[in-house]
Amino acid sequence: MNSMGAPVRHVVGHGAVVPVLSDEEAPRLRLEFLDGLRGLAALYVVEYHISQFAPSPHASPWRHAQQLYWHFFCYGHQAVVVFIVLSGYVLMLPVARTQDGHMPKGVWDYFKRRARRILPPYYAALSFSILLLALYPSLQHPALVSPWGVALPPFVPLGTLTHILLIHNLTPHGYKIDPPMWSVALEWQIYFLFPFLFLPLWRRFGLLGPVVGASVLSLGILHQGLFPVYAWTAPWMLVAFTLGMAGAAVNFWEADPFCRSLRDKLPWYRLGFISLLLVPIAHFLTDHRFFRSARDGDWLTNILMALAAMCFIVGSTRFLQKEHRLNRLFRWLDAPPTVKLGTFSYSLYLVHYPILGALFWGYFGLSHSQRAAWIVVFCSVPVIVGVAYLFHLVFERPFMPTHLRKGQARSLEKMATSTDAATPAPHEPALHVPPKQES
User: What domain range is 91 assigned to?
Assistant: First the structure.
């Protein structure tokens, strides 16, 4: 590659193109911490939405604890950023480990696998939400003003059609029916930009090409430029995705001395920690009207969070590449319950909001107490996780790659032959990185 990270082919023998290989990284890497990170991000989103249903803490005897809870879980949008960064990272992994920087099995195979992995659970969750709204009329006519109101009215023909087409985030119906689904539509649209825009930019201009291109497209053209979109579309998430791509290239693209230099010389954990500290500062500036509205400042906090997530992932992967002993944080992220949560985080993300609404308004109809209804919802996290897991078994697991359905016990030799092992969905485990190809 050139100094900016553009791919450079190394020709050996009879025209065979091979990347520069490192003996240090020849052993197989296990990246279970990505599953743990994904699972915790999904659980954080659940807690964030629970906090939105909480009554005013001013008259509550537990107001200080409630305020602390709300302040800790008020960054739900940042957890979505982590999902997007993980999406860019895991989809870039197989590309970064090829000889020529192209998709191992081609674009058509890539789209088939993405559709099989993402669409069946999505349409099942959409049907589940519509059925729940139809069976519980109180969900359509809530007695209190609450965050649930953004999902209403649910049965608008155009809104349902845009959800079916996965373009609802580009319309006024972005939060209808099941509000968290806006980000699924965004990820689906990113899937088309990845092979046709971001990868060509990376091959032509190097490591920063996709990041700059995504910044111009999302912040310059879509957010404030020629074709402004609705605020909830969050077009700057394209930048978060390309930062994830850059992270995978830094970790695994061996043909580029620029990537190897960044990988070995930058203090990734320190950079990630600084970026993370800047998130609440930017949030403070947003709240105090340094921007025209809070939504206008979201791009800054989200990109800072994306930088923090990317730096953490790169630093952690490098930590494993150097075969260091697992520290306490890794043991926590690698813990079987945390990894297991990551395996069905997509289902948890899809179905938790309608379940929250049904529990809250169902109990409110019995008690007529917002506080009592919120306490029920607050204590119902195990129920929500359990229902999401059952949903995963029925509607998600059958469509996962075989090695993920069979669990981690599959042999390394069989795993090494599967391209899918390194190309999971954004909410899908990325447990193993295939060994490098030898020339």
Answer: 31-433
- Separation CA 295–CA 312 (nearest Å): 26
> Does any domain span residue 9?
no
Six token digits for residue 267:
């203090």
Give 126-132 contacts, CB < 8 A, sequence gap 24+.
126/163, 126/164, 126/177, 126/178, 126/181, 128/351, 128/354, 128/391, 129/154, 129/177, 129/178, 129/351, 129/354, 130/154, 130/155, 130/160, 130/177, 132/354, 132/357, 132/358
**Least reliable range by pLDDT among 5-19, 172-186, 218-232:** 5-19
For the cut 90, the answer to whether the pLDDT of residue 167 exceeds it is: yes
Of 378, 318, 380, nearest to 33 (Cα)?
318
Cα 319 from Cα 51, distance rounded (Å): 35
**Over the chain, what is the mean pLDDT?**
80
Tell me if 22 is assigned to some domain.
Answer: no
Q: Is the pLDDT of residue 207 over 50?
A: yes
Question: Could you give the count of Cα atoms lying within 13 Å of 270 in the half-sphere of its Cβ?
Answer: 3
Q: Give the Å distances, CA to CA, from 131 to 110, 135, 147, 232, 379.
A: 32, 6, 20, 25, 24
Q: Quick check: is 20 in a domain?
A: no
Contact by Cβ (8 Å): 405, 397:
yes
More confident residue, 96 or 362: 96
Is residue 311 a contact partner of residue 269, using CB atoms and an 8 Å limit? yes
Smallest Cα–Cα separation from 218: which of 179, 260, 190? 190
Q: Where are the alpha helices (DSSP H) in 136-180?
A: 137-140, 157-164
Q: What is the pLDDT of residue 363?
A: 79
Residue 157 contacts residue 164 (beta carbons within 8 Å): no
Q: Which contiguous run of DSSP H or E holds residue 16?
A: strand 16-18
- Residue 8 inside a domain? The answer is no
Residue 31 neighbours by CB under 8 Å, 6+ apart: 317, 320, 430, 431, 432, 433
Residue 416's contacts (CB-CB under 8 Å, 6 or more residues apart) are 28, 434, 435
Nearest Cα to Cα of residue 357 among 161, 44, 130, 186: 130
280-314 tens-digit pLDDT? 888 877 765 555 444 556 888 999 999 999 999 99
Looking at the DSSP assignment, which residues form a beta bridge with residue 16? 12
For the chain, how many structural domains are there in total?
1
Q: Which residue has the tokens 């915790």?
A: 40
Query: What whole-number distance in Å separates Cα of residue 241 and Cα of residue 193?
Result: 10
